[in-house]
Design the sequence.
C-alpha cells in the first residue's frame, strides 16, 4: 500500500512539473473538459450504435416499452455501480459486493420467515450490507499493509460462506405480495426500480461533484499520502466509501430478491465483475483519481441494452458474453489510444500531468 | 464550466442518445408472432439440453411453427428471467421452460401469461400456478426408487452411498432425491447396512461436478456408490473414478447420456445407468405446445392428444398438484446395449 503510493509519487516527480505545482491541478477544469467530455461523447456514440444495431436486428426493440420497462431487467446491479465508482476513484477495488448481496438477501429472507415484519427485514438487510462494507473498510484502515484485493477477496469468500451456513443449499421466499412490487411495479407508468435508480444516480453524482467529500475522493485517488498530511481524514473517507458500497449492495439484494420472489446463497455470482466492468467502461480510471458520474450511467445502459437487444434477436448466450467483453477491451484501449494521440497533438508541458495518470488505465 | 453549460451538455448527450429512436420509430411496422414457440433450457454447454432443444425444434417444425431455442450462460433463475422477458417482448406464442428454480420464475411467468403467452415446463418443473402443464420424462417415484435399488445392487447391499446432484434448486433432481430417501426410509431392513452420507451439488457445471466428486471421495474414503441423477454430474463422476483408478471400488450410476457415458460403462466405472431419450422430451413438449395452441387440450387432467411419431398421450395429475404429461419409463443402459445407443444421443 505504502510502497504503491511511493511508487506513484516517484513517477509523478519524474515528469516535468505541472503548471502550478500542485497535484490537484490535474482536476483543473480544462483537463476534463478536453478529455472526459470526449470520452462521454464516445459512450453516447456507442449507446446510439447499440440502439441502431438492436433496431436493425430485432423488430421488437424500438418501442416505448423497451426504454421504459426494460431497464428494470438490468438495473438491479446498477445500484452498486455508483459506490463502486467511488471505490475505484480512490484507486481501490471491492470484489466482495456480490457476496454481500447474497448475504444480505439471505438474512432478509430468513429473518422474515422467522417472523420479523417485512419492513424490519428490509432494514436488517440494509444493516447487514452496511456492516459487511464497514468490515471491509475497517480491515483496510486497521491493517494498512493488507492489499485491498486480498481483503475483499477474503470477505467475498467469508460472506458467501456465511450465507451458505445460514441457508444451506436451499431457497427461501414466501414474501408478502406487496414486496414483489419493488421490482415489478411502477408509478405512473415508470418502474419503481427506474425511479430509484435515477434518485441514486443524482444523489451519488451530487456527492461526487458538488461536495467537499467528493473532492476529497479525487484528491485521495491522486495521492492518499499527501491528503493525509494535509489534514484530510483519509481513514474516515475510506471507511465511509466501503460502507456505502456494502449498503448499496444490500439495495441490490432487495430489488433482486423482489424480482425473484425468493433468494438463495448462490445469487449474484459474478456481480462484482459486471459492476467493475461497467465502471471501467464508464471511463473511471482503475488507478484512481479520475471519473465522472455520467460515464458509468451511460455504461450501465450500453451493457444493459446490448444484452437485451441481442436477447431479442435470440443470439446465444456465449455470443453475448464475447461481444460485451470485446466492447469493454476495445473501449479501454480506445480510451488510452485517444489520449496518446491527444498528447502528441498538445504541447508536452500542459498534457504531461494528466497523461501520466491516465496512461495507467 | 458553469452549471448552465453543463446542463446544456447533459441534455445534448441525451438528445444524441435518443436521436436514433426518433429516426427509427416512425418507419417500422410492428410484427406479430404467428406460431413462434420458445424453449428455454437451464444453461448452455449441456449436451442433454442441446438434445432436448433439438427435439423441440423438430417437433415444432413438423407442425409448421417456428422454434426459438434459448439458454442462459449460467444455470440461474436470474438469467432465465431475463430471457423470458426478452421472449415476452418478442410476443412469442408459447414458452417451454426447463426451470432452474421451482418458484423464482413465477413473477415473470405471470407477466408472460398476462401478455397472452402459453407456459409449459419440461423436464424440470415450475410450480403449478405458473404453468399450464408439465412434460415429465418419467415417473419421478420410479426414477428415485430405481436408482437406490441400483446402488444397493452395485454396493452388494452394504456401504456408504452419496448423491451428486445438479443445482440445489433444480426441481426435478430434488424430487428424485426425495424419492430416493423415501425408498431408503420405507425399507429399513433391506437398506440397514447402507448409509446415504451426503447430497452434493455440482450445479450441472463440469468443473464443479468434478471437484464435488473429488470432495466426496476425500471425505468418505469408504464410499461405495455415487448416484448422479444428472447427465453432467454422472459424466464428471465417471471421469474422476476412471482417472483415479478407482474402477471396481467406487461405482457410479444415475442418469447419463449414452454418448458421454459409453467409455465408463465399458470400463466398469458405471455398471449400468438409466435415461429416457432427451430428444423425445423436447419433441413431446413441442406437441404439447401445439395441442394447447390448437385448443385440443387446455392442460387439465384427463385430456388426450397425439404427439407425432410418439403416439397418443394423456394429461395426468402431477404429484405437486398441477398436471403433467409423462414420456415413459426410464431406459436401462449397460455394456450389452451401450454400443447401439452411444451414437444416437
Sequence:
Amino acid at each position: 500500500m505504502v510502497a504503491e503510493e511511493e511508487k506513484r509519487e516517484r513517477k509523478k516527480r519524474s515528469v516535468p512539473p505541472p503548471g502550478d505545482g500542485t497535484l490537484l491541478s490535474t482536476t483543473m477544469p480544462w483537463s476534463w473538459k478536453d478529455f472526459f467530455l470526449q470520452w462521454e461523447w464516445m459512450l453516447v456514440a456507442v449507446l446510439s450504435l447499440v440502439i441502431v444495431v438492436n433496431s436493425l436486428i430485432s423488430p421488437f426493440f424500438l418501442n416505448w416499452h423497451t426504454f421504459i420497462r426494460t431497464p428494470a431487467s438490468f438495473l438491479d446491479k446498477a445500484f452498486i455501480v455508483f459506490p463502486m465508482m467511488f471505490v475505484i476513484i480512490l484507486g481501490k477495488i471491492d470484489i466482495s459486493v456480490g457476496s454481500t448481496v447474497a448475504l444480505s438477501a439471505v438474512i432478509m429472507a430468513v429473518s422474515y420467515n422467522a417472523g420479523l415484519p417485512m419492513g424490519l427485514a428490509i432494514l436488517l438487510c440494509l444493516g447487514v450490507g452496511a456492516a459487511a462494507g464497514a468490515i471491509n473498510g475497517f480491515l483496510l484502515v486497521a491493517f494498512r499493509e493488507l492489499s485491498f484485493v486480498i481483503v475483499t477477496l477474503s470477505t467475498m469468500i467469508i460472506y458467501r460462506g456465511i450465507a451458505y451456513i445460514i441457508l444451506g443449499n436451499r431457497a427461501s421466499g414466501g414474501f408478502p405480495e406487496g414486496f414483489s412490487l419493488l421490482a415489478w411495479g411502477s408509478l405512473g407508468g415508470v418502474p419503481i426500480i427506474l425511479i430509484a435508480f435515477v434518485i441514486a444516480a443524482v444523489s451519488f453524482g451530487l456527492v461526487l461533484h458538488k461536495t467537499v467529500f467528493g473532492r476529497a475522493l479525487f484528491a485521495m485517488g491522486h495521492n492518499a499520502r499527501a491528503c493525509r498530511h494535509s489534514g484530510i481524514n483519509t481513514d474516515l473517507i475510506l471507511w465511509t466509501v466501503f460502507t456505502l458500497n456494502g449498503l448499496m449492495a444490500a439495495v441490490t439484494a432487495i430489488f433482486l430478491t423482489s424480482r425473484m420472489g425468493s433468494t438463495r446463497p448462490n445469487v449474484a455470482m459474478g456481480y462484482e465483475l459486471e459492476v467493475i466492468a461497467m465502471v471501467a467502461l464508464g471511463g473511471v480510471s482503475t488507478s484512481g483519481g479520475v471519473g465522472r458520474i455520467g460515464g458509468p450511467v451511460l455504461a450501465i445502459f450500453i451493457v444493459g441494452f446490448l444484452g437485451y437487444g441481442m436477447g431479442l434477436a435470440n443470439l446465444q448466450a456465449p455470443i453475448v458474453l464475447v461481444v460485451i467483453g470485446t466492447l469493454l477491451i476495445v473501449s479501454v484501449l480506445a480510451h488510452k489510444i485517444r489520449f496518446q494521440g491527444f498528447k502528441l497533438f498538445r504541447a508536452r508541458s500542459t498534457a504531461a500531468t494528466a497523461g501520466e495518470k491516465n496512461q495507467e488505465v | 464550466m458553469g452549471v448552465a453549460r453543463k446542463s446544456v451538455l447533459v441534455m445534448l448527450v441525451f438528445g444524441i442518445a435518443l436521436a436514433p429512436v426518433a429516426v427509427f420509430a416512425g418507419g417500422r411496422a410492428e410484427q406479430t408472432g404467428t406460431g413462434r414457440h420458445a424453449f428455454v433450457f437451464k444453461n448452455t454447454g449441456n449436451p442433454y439440453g442441446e438434445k432436448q432443444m433439438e427435439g423441440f425444434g423438430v417437433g415444432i417444425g413438423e407442425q409448421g411453427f417456428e422454434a426459438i431455442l434459448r439458454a442462459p450462460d449460467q444455470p440461474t433463475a436470474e438469467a432465465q428471467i431475463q430471457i423470458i422477458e426478452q421472449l415476452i417482448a418478442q410476443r412469442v406464442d408459447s414458452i417451454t421452460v426447463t426451470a432452474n428454480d421451482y418458484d423464482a420464475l413465477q413473477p415473470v411467468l405471470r407477466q408472460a401469461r398476462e401478455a397472452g403467452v402459453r407456459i409449459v415446463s419440461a423436464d424440470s418443473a415450475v410450480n403449478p400456478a405458473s404453468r399450464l402443464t408439465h412434460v415429465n420424462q418419467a415417473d419421478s417415484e420410479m426414477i428415485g426408487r430405481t436408482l437406490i435399488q441400483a446402488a444397493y445392487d452395485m454396493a452388494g447391499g452394504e456401504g456408504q452411498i452419496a448423491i451428486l446432484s445438479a443445482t440445489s434448486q433444480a426441481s426435478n433432481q430434488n424430487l428424485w432425491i426425495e424419492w430416493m430417501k423415501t425408498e431408503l426410509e420405507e425399507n429399513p431392513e433391506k437398506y440397514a447396512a447402507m448409509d446415504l452420507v451426503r447430497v452434493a451439488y455440482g450445479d450441472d457445471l463440469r468443473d464443479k461436478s468434478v471437484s464435488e466428486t473429488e470432495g466426496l471421495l476425500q471425505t468418505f474414503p469408504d464410499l461405495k456408490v455415487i448416484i448422479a441423477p444428472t447427465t453432467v454430474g454422472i459424466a464428471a463422476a465417471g471421469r474422476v473414478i476412471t482417472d483415479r483408478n478407482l474402477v471396481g471400488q467406487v461405482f457410479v450410476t444415475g442418469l447419463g447420456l449414452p454418448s458421454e457415458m459409453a467409455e465408463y460403462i465399458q470400463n466398469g466405472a458405471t455398471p449400468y445407468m438409466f435415461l429416457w431419450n432427451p430428444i423425445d422430451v423436447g419433441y413431446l413438449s413441442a406437441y404439447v405446445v401445439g395441442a394447447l395452441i390448437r385448443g385440443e387440450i387446455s392442460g387439465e387432467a384427463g385430456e388426450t392428444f397425439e404427439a407425432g411419431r410418439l403416439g397418443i398421450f394423456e394429461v395426468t395429475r402431477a404429484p405437486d398438484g398441477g398436471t403433467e404429461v409423462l414420456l415413459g419409463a426410464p431406459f436401462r443402459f449397460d455394456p450389452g446395449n451401450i454400443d447401439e445407443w452411444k451414437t444416437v444421443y
Remarks:
- Residues 88 and 112 of chain B are 6 Å apart (CA to CA).
- The first strand of chain B starts at residue 36 and ends at 40.
